[in-house]
Amino acid sequence: MIPRLQCPICLDALALNESSATCCGHTFHQSCILRWLKNYETCPVCRKEITTLIQQLFFQMEENENFNSVGTDLFKMHNELQNALKHLQEVEQAAAKAKDEANFFLTANLLLKDQVTNLEMISRLNVQQINNLKSKLAQQMNKEKELEEYKKRLQAAEL
């Protein structure tokens, strides 16, 4: 991660042209430390009493093309890395969601297979029962025919 100056009060980036310092050496946004000093007389970081305030710090930096180029490259690489990590997190979340859905459908599929197996067994039992009833019906009809023949013989014998 690229180090950057940060105001300890508001935690925003501290631009060099907006900074003020306390006598203890801590730096802040000028507006942040002035607002702080309206309520407190101590440094927000170390709590030492503030007797003087450097209203604005002026930094003189040498322009160095190599340093700027490296800093820019590092910043770009950092942003690319952050974007890649964000994309990776999104892909991992999508994969986890897809895995959960797949597990749900696999469980539902297993339950349906069990139901199909049970229904097939019930169907076989029903077919068996129908065949048994057909057989009993055929036997009953044969017995009724026999009974009719015996009735006819009995009537013929009585005459």
Explain the overall architecture.
One of its GO terms (biological process) is protein ubiquitination. With 159 residues, the chain is mainly alpha-helical. The chain has two domains: 61 residues, Herpes Virus-1; 70 residues. Helices cover 65% and strands 6% of the residues. A three-stranded antiparallel beta sheet has the order 2-1-3. Strand 1 and strand 2 form a beta hairpin. It is rod-shaped. It starts with 18 loop residues before the first strand and ends with a helix. The model has no long low-confidence stretch (mean pLDDT 88).
Output the keywords.
Herpes Virus-1, 3-stranded antiparallel β-sheet, rod-shaped, Znf_RING/FYVE/PHD, zinc ion binding, coiled coil
Brief summary:
The protein is mostly helical.
E-strand count: 3
- Shape verdict: rod-shaped
Q: How much of the sequence is in beta strands?
A: 5-15%
- Strand order of the biggest β-sheet: 2-1-3
**How far from one another are the termini?**
122 Å
User: Would you tell me the structural class of the helices and strands?
Assistant: mainly alpha
Number of domains: 2
The count of helical stretches stands at 2
Q: Report the order of strands and helices.
A: EEHEH
Flag low-confidence runs.
Answer: none
Helix fraction, binned, reads: 55-70%
Major sheet characteristics: 3 strands, antiparallel
Q: What average pLDDT do the residues reach?
A: 88
Radius of gyration: 47 Å
Keywords: Coiled coil, Metal-binding, Zinc, Zinc-finger
Organism: Onchocerca flexuosa
GO cellular component, one term: nucleus
InterPro entries: TRAIP_ubiq-protein_ligase, Znf_RING, Znf_RING/FYVE/PHD
